[in-house]
Amino acid sequence: MKKIISFDLDGTLVHGKYGDIVWNQGIPEEYAMKYGMPFEEAKKLIRAQYEAIGDSAIEWYNIDNWLRKFDLPVSANTLLNRYETSIEAFPDTLEVLQALTTKYTLIIASNAARIFVEKELAYTDLTHYFTHIISATTDYGMVKKDERFYKKLCTMLNASPHEIVHVGDHQVFDFEAPLRHGIDAFHLVYDSLAVRGDPPAKNGKTIYRLSDLLDKI
Predict the structure, then answer these.
(1) How far apart are CA 42 and CA 28, in angstroms?
(2) How many CB atoms lie within 10 A of CB 78?
(3) 130 vs 128: CA distance, rounded Å
(4) Rounded to the nearest 5°, which phi and psi values hold at 51?
(5) Is residue 43 within 8 Å of residue 28, measured between CB atoms?
(6) pLDDT, tens digit, for every residue of 183-198?
(7) CA dihedral defined by 16, 165, 122, 100, rounded to 10 degrees?
(8) What is the rounded distance in angstroms from the CA atom of residue 42 to the CA atom of residue 48?
(9) Which of 84, 153, 158, 165 has a C-alpha 20 to 30 A away from that of 46?
(10) What are phi and psi of 140, to 5 degrees?
(11) Of 74, 101, 92, 139, nearest to 4 (Cα)?
């Protein structure tokens, strides 16, 4: 019997553009101002630094690490607050959460750093729907939500894999990885919003709107 529904956040409940703006506009703008260079030059330099570290390193996900590295005179909270109006929940997110919250325990299982997750949930007024908010990078020190992540998730929740459903937009880390651990999963592919370029799953577990989930569980 399913008791818990786990949701990815960016690209699943909220649009992924917020993080992109903070990382690829906010930080380069600060860098350009401090070091007196054109924005595009700063952006190119910053991107090169990101790529040199790579997203397989836990440091890549820590915004404070980058602000210190570039010696920028701005706090992470200030930067996140500056662009908060770009945070946008998908149109059916609230409908789905309201429908499910009376029947299931709802949690967030995101790869994003906790500072981003908490900001996005607070701004969209969604925090209260979730009993647990887990960041793979901040809480578990994992750079990807692989099978080990879902094993730790089950242990933390004191739940068996068959009691959990996970929903997310990444075919590998939100779909294949939980399935390998015995967790039922749905791959969310927004057909008209083109949130990701991942190919759709082919075993009947693909949904094209979050609200499709209501007919599946």
Answers:
(1) 5
(2) 12
(3) 6
(4) -65, -30
(5) yes
(6) 999 999 976 544 444 5
(7) 120
(8) 10
(9) 84
(10) -115, -5
(11) 101
Return d(Cα 111, Cα 116) in angstroms, integer.
10
Nearest one of 23, 196, 168 to 108, comparing CA atoms: 168
Q: How far is CA 78 from CA 30, 73, 81, 83, 115, in A?
A: 12, 10, 5, 9, 12
- Site of tokens 């860098």: 31
Q: Nearest 5°: CA angle at 18, between 215 and 177?
A: 50
Eight-class DSSP state of 7: E
Residues 6+ apart with CB under 8 A from 124: 13, 14, 87, 88, 89, 93
Decide: 4 and 164 in contact? Cβ < 8 Å.
yes
Return the SS3 of 157: helix
R_g over Cα of the chain: 18
Contacting residues for 201 by C-beta, under 8 A, at least 6 apart:
171, 175, 187
Q: Which of 5-14, 172-181, 199-208 has the lowest mean pLDDT?
A: 199-208
| Token pair recorded at residue 156 | 């933390």
At 74, list the tokens: 């701005």
Rounded Cα gap, residues 63 and 115, in angstroms: 9
Residue labelled with tokens 């995101």: 110
pTM (two decimals):
0.91
Q: Counting runs of H as helices and runs of E as strands, what totals does the chain give?
A: 10, 6
Q: What is the pLDDT of residues 113-129, one digit of tens each?
A: 999 999 999 999 999 99
